[in-house]
Amino acid sequence: MEDPRAQRLFGDRLVAPGDLATSPFRVDRDRIVASPFFARLAGVTQVISPGGAGLLVHNRMTHSLKVAQVARAIAERVDHGLADKLGGCDPDVVEAAALAHDLGHPPFGHLGERVLDRVARQRLKLRDGFEGNAQSYRIVTSTEIRGQHTIGLNLTNAVRAAILKYPWTRRDPQRFMDPAPRGAAPPPDDPEGGSLKFGAYSTEAADMHAARAPFAGRVADWQQTVEASVMDTADDIAYAIHDLEDVHRVGVLQQGAVATELMAWQRWGPSTDLTRAGGAIESLRRQLHRKDGWMADDDAFAAAVELVRAELVDGLLARPFDGSLEAEAQVAAFAATWTRRLVESVETIADPAVRSGHVQLAQAQWHEVQVLKFVQNRFVLARPDLALHQRGQGRLVASLVEALIAWLVDPDEEERIPSRLRDLVELAEAELPDGTPERLDRARGRAVVDFVAGLTDNQAVGLMQALSGKSRQLWTDAFVL
Q: Is the domain of 154 the same as that of 98?
């Protein structure tokens, strides 16, 4: 009898031309890497837009490759006796999930995700809105088949389940748990809007339940599989370390500002005035106790601040990056040392806290990751110059949605709608039950969101320039219609 973890959504009758491996999970990995959705990640923002910094910084593809590398290293270290009782932990499954986890990220990274969600919910009246994780799952599981062609990748249950960081839909009841799983809180602008983070749209809910079926009775319904937990932990590690590499390389992470904040907190500790130097990281300490009391510890937090000060502030940031071989070696050594320490600290837990997974960092390293992420959030993502740039990108995404909706509803342009956009409207309309109010309008809205989410940063810019009459190029490779 076939292993239920290895069963595919559409069965094995659909063989892709590139299926050369014998392991079903290795086939999944190859299908993901060969897909155009993976290729486009080279042109999608991680933190700094790849169009503005050349080869110096990570894009979503290089980030995904590093997550896969870290995830595989963790998978080889888990307690396999415990993991087998929880449903298994195969390194090929973990690697495939890591490569696929960002397929649904729209142009301009998390900024584009927030804008598309707001526009989808408020302007287009789509109850599911937009969520990058759910979009990734939609890409690999789409059930529309025409002849011998399938839009989805027909992955195994194990890999689809491993992609699910948040194994629920927007309207599932996880948000009412106390405490709620990480990510299950409602959007700040819509208390009744369901979960902020979720793994599948309602249109893919049945596919999600099929993927999770082999794990029933092994992990809680709201809990990640072990393989998903490995992928999620690897994503955290890669984000905390490799994104710091980027901002150091392009010179936007300044030693003085970080040193002032960390050393002020070390001097005053919990009594720090929140309005002065050290107040931001004291706010983080208090937030960790409020949201993650199951793990937060003041001694571990203080030790993490000291370690980051010593190795990041007095180490990596002590010398501005100048592109020399010595500077490159210093960055590589910093990343390698931190990655190894974090990977080797990972533990397999039989009964994790609700806001954690079966695979998690040890207490000391969990705090170190929180402090590293704080440095990124406080001294890079909160910069006014980045905000200026991102506000323009956000307006571009919203305007692009409006322009494409206007094109779809123009009766004089019916014959000249881009083929891909037309196909997406047909798919979205077929997914909606008969009798759905404003069925065609909702289908058009979902199709436009799918279309925009599938663009690279440069394609989004080029398409908006053309639609607004600012482009002088009639024939261009900036986008495919």
A: yes
